[in-house]
Amino acid sequence: MPDNATPSVLFVCVHNAGRSQMAAAFLTHLADGRVQVRSGGSTPALAVNPVVAEAMKEKGIDISDEVPKVLTVEAVQSSDVVITMGCGDTCPVFPGKRYLDWDLPDPAGQDVEVVRPIRDEIERRVRGLLTEIDIPPRIPPR
After folding, report:
1. Under a CB-based contact definition with an 8 Å cutoff, are residues 40 and 69 in contact?
2. What share of the chain is helix, strand, coil (3-state, %, to 5)?
3. Which of 13, 35, 63, 126 is catalytic?
4. Segment holding 118, helix H or strand E
5. Which end of the chain has less Cβ packing within 10 Å, N or C?
6. What pLDDT, in 10s, does the model give residues 58-68?
7. 13 belongs to the catalytic site
8. Is the pLDDT of residue 93 over 90?
C-alpha cells in the first residue's frame, strides 16, 4: 500500500449482524474518514441484531439502519486488513493481505448486559488497530 493511500479494513463474521457491525461502526466513527471500512458475513442475517444496535446506541453510534452484507471475494481482495470474528474457513485468503482473528463471543441471543462487554472489547481492539496503522482516533464516543 502506498504511503498516501487510505488503508482499508474488512470485518467478517458469519451473520454480519453483531460483532463485525460493531467493529465497522467503531472504526468508521473513530477513523473519521481516514480508513475505508467494510464488513460482511458468509451467511448474512436479514437485519442487525437489535440488542447490538441498542448497545451501540449507548455509545452514541446508531447502527440500526445498517444492513448485513454477504462477504465477497472482491471485498477481501480490495482490503488491506481482514479481521475475522468467527467465520472459520469460509473467508477467502489472498497473499499480501494482513489477516487477524479476533476471538470474541457471539452476541446472538444475548441480552444487552452480555453484549456490553463484547462491545467494549471490540472498541478496545479497534482503537489498538488504529494505533497500529498510525491513525489517531477522533474524540471518543460517550
Report:
1. yes
2. 35, 15, 50
3. 13
4. helix 112-132
5. C
6. 999 999 999 99
7. yes
8. no
